[in-house]
Amino acid sequence: MIKVIKFMEKMWLMLSIVTFIIAVVRSIQYSIFDALYFYGFSVIAIFLFLLRRRQRKFHERNNQG
């Protein structure tokens, strides 16, 4: 179970970084309004990364004791 949570945690972190880079590139090429969708998705992915990290730490604490 912890392996799946670690994988999902890394996946959300990678997705947030990639979408942030895409957003910055689109902001430079076009305008910030064209990149708002990508900025929003990046924020959501960061939130889900933090949620998975909290869940992983909770499971690791419960498995120790």
Q: How confident overall, as mean pLDDT?
A: 93
Helix content: over 70%
Radius of gyration: 15 Å
Kindly, what is the distance between the CA atoms of the first and last residues, rounded to a whole number of angstroms? 17 Å
Order of helices and strands: HH
Large-scale geometry: rod-shaped
Number of helices: 2
Major beta-sheet overview:
none
Strand content: under 5%
Number of strands: 0
Structural class comes to: mainly alpha
Low-confidence stretches: none
Overall description:
There is one protein chain. By secondary structure, this protein is mainly α. It is 94% helix and 0% strand. It contains two helices and no strands. The protein starts with a helix and ends with a helix.
Short structural summary:
The chain has 65 residues and is mainly alpha-helical.
Secondary structure: elements and pairs:
Blueprint: H1 2-29, H2 32-64
Using brief descriptors, characterize the structure shown.
65 residues; mainly alpha; 2 helices; rod-shaped
